[in-house]
Amino acid sequence: MQHSSLAVYSYPDQQAGQAKSVNDFIFNADNLMDYEVGALQSLTMVHKAMRKATRPFSGISPQALARQVNQIDLAQPAGNLEAALAEVESVYLNNAVYFHHPGYVAHLNCPVAYPAVLAEQILSGINTSVDTWDQSGGATLIEQKLIDWTSQQIGFDDNADGIFTSGGTQSNLMGMLVAREQAVAKHAPEHDVRYQGLPAVARRFRIFTSAMSHFSIQKAASLLGLGFDAVVPVPVDEQFKMDVHALARALTEASEQGLIPICINVTAGTTDYGSIDDITGAHQLAQQFGCWLHVDAAYGGGLLLSDQHRHKLTGIASADSVTLDYHKSLMQPVSSSGFMLKDRTFFKHITLHSDYLNPLAEKGQGYPNLVDKSLQTTRRFDALKLWMTLRTMGAASLGQGMDKIIALARQCYLVLKTSEVFEVVNEPELSAIVFRFAPAGIDDATLNTVNQAIRQHFLTTGEAMIARTTLRGNHYLKFTLLNPATRIDTLQHILSRIIELGDANLASQAEEKQ
Ligand SMILES: *Cc1c(COP(=O)(O)O)cnc(C)c1O
Description:
This protein has 514 residues and is an alpha/beta fold. The protein is 41% helix and 12% strand. The protein has 3 domains: 31-98, PLP-dependent transferase-like; 129-393, Aspartate Aminotransferase, domain 2 (3-Layer(aba) Sandwich), CATH 3.40.640; 396-513, Aspartate Aminotransferase, domain 1. Strand 5, helix 10 and strand 6 form a beta-alpha-beta unit.
């Protein structure tokens, strides 16, 4: 029998002396030497940048930096890797915000573990996508093992499951989505939202969350067609935790008005204060009102690994779903977050089958397709970063990192508390402290001006990076401590600078008034 044969054409390779072609830049076995040289060059540049970063930020204004960025003509390539790197150094590295710097105490950004950075290089080069088995192979199993590990840390049993996501915002969206679908199943059982959109009864759905919870809960409500108004803000107590009595009242009132509580969102580590809501109290109410219990532990999730502080998450295993950001408190590079479900069957609300990816007909053939549990299709293999971290450092050292930052926050709190010029508003349970420069006898309006000016000074000099927030209409400053290597002396130094700047500003305000 005659087999038809296909003609093979060969093209001459690039001529000597010619400019490099696309093939010369492919990350493949032919170009690994160039990659290696480039990797060393970029590493040297990062090394230099980090040594040079004597402050966490250059303080450059967005206008000044925009002029530099705008000068670059994307139609004219820099020509080679060295030139491209030099450009990156000037527009990016020289003006980046450095989270590893001990003077970076602003937002929920952590310094990263270097084994995770190495993992990032590996996973980007291989460019795995953890959607289907045939795009990931072993990566799917590694991610699944970390998800199972996370379940165990939470205290969930074998029925649990989860998925890596891009961040707490996406994880919270998934939690609210499943809560909404469960409510539809209960109150409009014949209805399929996927085909028909929301049923009429959804207008009465309400989500209960503390007034201090993260904005992503509102965002989720709006994306899910429930609207911001479906989110009922519950007042907090003096330590910024959701007031369980107020929650009970709000749930009762809503029910009496014919509204339907579909979810209680508990924040385990509020973004501003690090306060942890009473999970057990919320669980009892969720049982009583028959609604979903979601725990947003985006920030506080790292406590699971701390022997000293794990108890602060007591009750977390009673949650129906949990958000936790490995990129907040577990030293992971952005992005790395988890969404966990106590009962894996609820992932059915997320699964959609497509003929080319994960056909229903193949289900049960033993090919694990993580896309079945994800909102994303193509998805980064972020799990490798946590894997390398755990395999190199171990979970216990991450837990010690949590212990250190909590101890540091406590020390800082005591410094602030015993000072006469500071007003400190929360006793940190995690590692966020809100305070303001407030010498006695000065009115709020003046203090607001001073504290804004202090924050502005730091932003425009970059000598330290601190955050701000408002409380009862007044301006406050905030430290978020996530760096286990930061020492109290550094914080004391920033605080003395705040006093100097504050005094100077008060003096100039007094002068202006005369
Ligand atoms: C940061 C944060 C989020 C959002 O997480 P991203 O990873 O930034 O999307 C949600 N909830 C809380 C409590 C957070 O602190």
